[in-house]
Every structure is written in C-alpha cells, then in structure tokens.
Amino acid sequence: SAQENPYERGPDPTENSIEATRGPFAVSQTSVSSLVVTGFGGGTIYYPTSTAEGTFGAVAVSPGFTATQSSIAWIGPRLASQGFVVITIDTLTVLDQPDSRGDQLLAALDYLTQRSSVRGRIDASRLAVSGHSMGGGGSLEATETRPSLQASVPLAPWNADKTWSSVRTPTFIIGGESDSVASVSSHSIPFYQSIPAASEKAYMELDGASHFFPNTPNTTMAKYLISWMKRFVDNDTRYEQFLCPPPNDSDIEEYRHTCPHV
Ligand code: 9J3
Ligand code: ZN
Ligand code: ZN
Fold first, then answer.
1. Is the peptide bond before 157 cis (omega within 30 degrees of 0)?
2. Helix, strand or coil for residue 28?
3. Counting Cβ atoms within 10 Å, is residue 185 exposed (0-12), middle (13-18) or buried (19+)?
4. Would you say 78 and 22 are in contact if contact means Cβ atoms under 8 Å apart?
5. Reported ipTM
6. Considering every ligand atom, which ligand is closest to the CA of 102?
7. Is the pLDDT at 2 greater than 80, yes or no?
8. Which residue out of 96, 181, 191, 210 has the highest number of ligand 1 atoms within 8 Å of its CB and is therefore the one to mutate?
C-alpha cells in the first residue's frame, strides 16, 4: 500500500495495464529548446498532468547514433502515463558517442530536477536512464558515472566497452535476436555478463527483432520497461510479479535474470 511505500503511484497493476498504450495518468508535454540548456541538445518533457499523488521519479531517454528524439518519442508518453516525468533528449550532435551520451543523459536529469518548469513535480533522489543503441551504451556509461541512479534500461545497446563490472544500478538490457548493428553476442550479452551477479540485472532478447525495435511502439519492450522502472525507481513491489518469475511472452527468445529482486 501507499502507506508502506510512499513512492508507489497509480492503481494496482495488471497484465492489461502494463500492456496498454497509455497508463492511468493523463500526460502533458513541454519542449525544451537547445538554446536554454547546457550539456545536451534539448528535448521534450512528458509528465503526469496531476500533482494529486505527489512527486514522481524521472527518466531521461537518449536516441541512437544519427537519430533524434523523434526516433524514441513514443517512449515518452508511454512511460509518463504510468507515473514518471520523462525527458526524451536530442544530443549535442547526432554523431556523439556513448560516453558523451551518458554525460548528456545526466545533464538532462540535472536540468529536469534543478531548472525545468516541472522540477517541483520530481523526486530528485529517484532518477533513471534509458536509450537506444549508442544511447543504451550511454545509459551504461551514466550509471558508471553516477551510481545513485535507481534504474537503467539500455535498448539494443551499442558500446565498444564490453566491461561493466562497476555497475551497481539495477540494469535491464533489452536486445533484439536479429540485430545486425549491435549484435547481442557482441553487445547486450557481454554487457549483461560483465555486470556483477550481486547487482540487480536482467536481459531480455526479443525474438527475431532487429536493431530498430525501440523505434516503434513495442508492447513487450514497454511492459517490462515500465515494470523495471516501477520496481526500482518507485520501489514498487507490486510490479515484481511481472519480472519474477521471469516472463515467458511468446516473443521473448531468451530471458536472463537475478530473481528474486530484493
Ligand atoms: O546508435 C547506434 O545505432 C549505434 C550503432 C552504430 O551505428 O554503430 C556503428 C558505429
Ligand atoms: Zn563521461
Ligand atoms: Zn527466435
């Protein structure tokens, strides 16, 4: 209950509620010009319109190499409508590499919590990152730089660095079985394996999915992204049921985990 966990938001979840294209919170949005921020390229903030339930955790999401926020825009309202403040970012240049994308995700979170028009709606101690491809590689970089992050969900992540033994942030890597740009055998799986078993971690491989599965609405990706963020940003154990025992949806090729998440 909310009395046991002050961070839980929204009604008790169901399989239908995490698969829905929108969650229980109406969402507003505001754009952030690159001209008024430093350290990242601007973006769009999606946030629950109501403040009746108090503050929310916040998530920054980075696109991949050569892409802009439009490539991951669907994630903004999908996640915000479940009870998060979300910023989908543009990077300083579309060619920025994962380490830079990690720094830019952190700059976006700092902007959100310290300067943005929605800063009063955010609990600055409950922050998370996600991103596609080099943005997923950047999500790993961000947790290495800032271990206080509560969750990270790299999507089809790409990084030349394969060793993430310093990661302590709960990290959920989602890969595509048929990704030929950031193959799971050279990226997602070694990343997952390099994170210590003592850290909360999971790896989900989507059956037959290409590198570009995060670029269009994907129910299986979304339902477990939402569950991971709820479980670790909000400490919301109501969502543990969707993560442990591990999911067995028909389009999951493989799932690795450290269940139960305690
Ligand atoms: O962000 C990405 O899509 C990274 C994949 C890539 O193009 O890497 C080649 C350098
Ligand atoms: Zn850095
Ligand atoms: Zn398959």
1. no
2. strand
3. exposed
4. yes
5. 0.86
6. 2
7. no
8. 181
CA–centroid distance, 214 to ligand 2, in Å, is 24
pLDDT of 174-221, one tens digit each?
999 999 999 999 999 999 999 999 999 999 999 999 999 999 999 999
CA 141 – ligand 2 centroid, Å: 7
Considering all CA atoms of the chain, what is the largest pairwise distance in Å, rounded to the nearest integer? 47
Other Cβ atoms less than 10 A from the Cβ of 113: the count is 18
16 contacts: CB under 8 Å, gap ≥ 6: none
Q: In what order do the strands lie in the sheet with 84-89?
A: 27-32, 43-48, 84-89, 56-62, 122-132, 151-155, 171-176, 201-206, 252-257
- Which amino acids are annotated catalytic? 133, 179, 211
Compute φ and ψ for 191, nearest 5 degrees.
-60, -50
Question: Which pLDDT value is given to residue 60?
Answer: 99
Residues flanking ligand 1, CB < 6 Å: 64-65, 133-134, 158, 181-182
Beta-strand pair 56-62/151-155: unpaired
Burial of 68 (0-12, 13-18, 19+ CB in 10 A): middle
The ligand that comes nearest to the alpha carbon of residue 180 is: 1
What distance in Å separates the CA atoms of residue 257 and residue 241, rounded to the nearest whole number?
A: 14
- pTM as predicted: 0.97
